[in-house]
Amino acid sequence: MRKIIFQILILLISFNASAQRDFNMQERIKAQKVAFITERLNLTPKEAQQFWPIYNAFENKIQSFRKNDLKKVREAMRRGNLSDKEAQQVLAQFMDVEEKIHQAKKELVKDLQSAISPQKIIKLKSAEDAFNKKLMNILQNRQAKMQEMRQRRMNKNKP
Known about the structure:
159 residues, mainly alpha, flat
């Protein structure tokens, strides 16, 4: 009995450590995004003070749509073998989420107009795209390095 409890305890501790690493990674990425966008938009302290609460509320709303609403759509898509009726429902759900995201973007632009200039609002999209591209490049480089390390280990273990 003690063995089982010990194994469950180890499993819970390792799960908690993994979740903490993921949370820390998300927080680091978010901090880098804040710095990147602030620099790219050349926000003054006053602008930043007004901009970030608006932008963070938008990001939270979009994240909620993706986490909650799109989760149902992704689950249905993974199941596969949908009937035409089910596929039509999934498409309708997907389009509803896309419409919510579009509306949130329109609200963001409207709300940001009281915080930053129209030129900086336009630069925001460019800055977001550049940050996402930079992040993707970092992830791809890490994956390539991991693959290279695995390949080396495999070659090293061959007789």
